[in-house]
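TL;DR need structure tokens for one chain.
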Amino acid sequence: MGNNWIVEQSTFNKTDIGKYESLFSLGNGNLGLRGNLEERESAYRRGTYINGFYETEPIQYGEWAYGFPEENQKILPLPEGKLFEFYAEGKLFSTADGTDHKRFLNMKEGCMVRSFKWNVHDGLAIHVSITRMVSFSLPSVAVQVLHFTFDGTVTSFRVVSSLETQRDEREPLHKDPREGSLLGADSLIKNKRVRDALREVSGYKTKRSNLYLAAGMEHQILTGNYTSVVYHQEEEGSTFIFDFTEPAGDIVLVKFLSYTQGKDIDTAMALCNADLTAAKKRGVDSLKKDQFRYLKDFWHKSDVTFHGSEELQKVLRLNLFHLVQSSGKNGKTSVAAKGLSGDGYDGHYFWDSEIYIVPFFRFTSPEIARALLSYRFSILDKARERAHELSHKGALFPWRTINGKEASAYFPAGTAQYHINADIAYSINKYLESTDDMEFLVKAGFEILVETARFWYDLGNFIPSKNGAFCIHEVTGPDEYSALVNNNFYTNIMAKDNFKAAVKWYDWLKKNQYTTFLEFTHSLKILKDERVQWESAAEKMYLPFNTEHGIFPQDDSFLDRPVWDIENTPTDKFPLLLHFHPLTLYRFQVLKQADVVMALFLQWDKFTIEQKKRSFDYYEKITTGDSSLSAAIQGIIALELGYMKKGYEYFLKTVTMDFNDVNGNVKDGIHTAAMGGSWMMMVYGFAGMREGTQHLSFSPHLPPEIEQISFRIQYKKTELEVTLGHISSTFLLLSGTTLTFSVNESVVVLTLGEKRVFTGNKSF
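>> reply
TL;DR here they are.
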């Protein structure tokens, strides 16, 4: 196994501790363990999380207005079970006492291994190895395996294992909106605690959100015999104290952790007990084998290999590994902006899920993509309520949320980002096109498309002064340095796509499943003229073009503003959002992230190459890249336009966003959107893949730094292996009967097992 499957940390210092806690996080989409060390004193931010388990807190406004969200939601740090204390000859181990510190994140086996040497005194050294794993086969279970080897004679050795409620002493840092704002120290109330031998399970209830949790620990001694065990409990938590007197050989101690939710305390505790029993019965070796099998299948479908840099290969795999660890798989949760690695952005779900992360799963693990989209359907009724609250028809999905209610307190850059509706509809439409999953259309997709189309039609208007064009006013697009504008180009063109998708699947159901179609028209009260309205709004959508610059204006007034002098802005003033009032930013032509350029990518077939070039050239100069979401999209379009050097630079920034801590805030959690963007850059960027309504197309163009890339995609119940080089491209159909696609505009039909090689890749 090469080093590009292993992420290693060989130096420990306080300045990097937060970064590596995030990078070494482990999870399975349900349960996440931040990568903090076992010692209490050596942590930037301890954290154990369940995806979607949250507390609420009233949002305090200086001035309140109707329709402002009333409560924030925040992912809660759960009782911490990673904690241990080690004593030798009565001396407590501190991280500073250790030498030869190393940590390995093994992305093939799905575990983290930490090792160090503790020189207790002359004549006694203890070698410690700790393996940590969050199980993919038991979604509520994590495992720690501690292995102690003694070099010399030890008369007494003690291991203290704890499970305790977190007490966050940090002050909330409100000056950086990317950080979490709600402290959860007092949110979990312990209602019940039961101990059985080396197991303890406690039941909790949140103060305000009224959710129930059970947290439990179970221990096994695989090697070595403890002479006594003492159980100790306090209000904050419990400990098991294992004493080993004159241990004759190695000691191997296993700690199973389980975190479960339930409809009440007793149900949650029963589930926790059942999972601990199952984990102990199956044992560490069996759980490791299950972990390896799960990841073997994941990597078979999802790995992207490329020749040119072993380091970048490793970092790319790290990004994909975090995506599968972060993504909800039960249809009731999504992907937080920071995954399960920290509480930045309060653990909220954004548009990142549908636009940056679902594409990866749609082409590699469609069942996960379906689960993420199903989450949106699970909160559709709340989206309907939100639209009604804002005096609109249909449904309005929240800009940021966990439980389905809007949690964004700053509406100009929150609720006003109505494009979230179109982003979700776009993702659903592309999922249906690429999977032919008509069951999902009937169960969830069509209803969302109808309600979002209704919202857009109610929000916009046919404006006489615009020659009767359909216009959408007072919105904010992806670029959060421009807010509350008229006719944001991205919003308008995506709303147009939303209308067209609703019409398309309306017609498909009417033609192919007429009984189901009638049921929908009755249950959703679809009027006969609604389809005509959606089609008319799509046809007449206002999409202006500025002939002076040869570009699409970001909004009606954007080009009338002065241009921000990015070149002469001091580097310590970035990101601008931390140093300038929003009103200052709103008055200038300056972008936080790709906006029109995002539209050029998602609606790629609506523009000429010259239109793309002029728009990209204009907006790229005034884009700060203050958002981690921007570089991937800019890089994809740069590569399409033949800007190979620039495209590769954007690729480097995207793929190393967290590994190199490009934005300086990975301590608060990973950037899942940038991680999804790194896959997008490989497939949409270097491979030039685009999705048409009928088939895929490829237009490969590799920069000189990358010799070859290879990946697999699932499309319309087939699996295609793609290998791209500078001179030739190879396509192999691994499963399915036939697949039609195009390479450099030449149509190809592959049959099962057939391989085709094409020469003449684009070279700029």
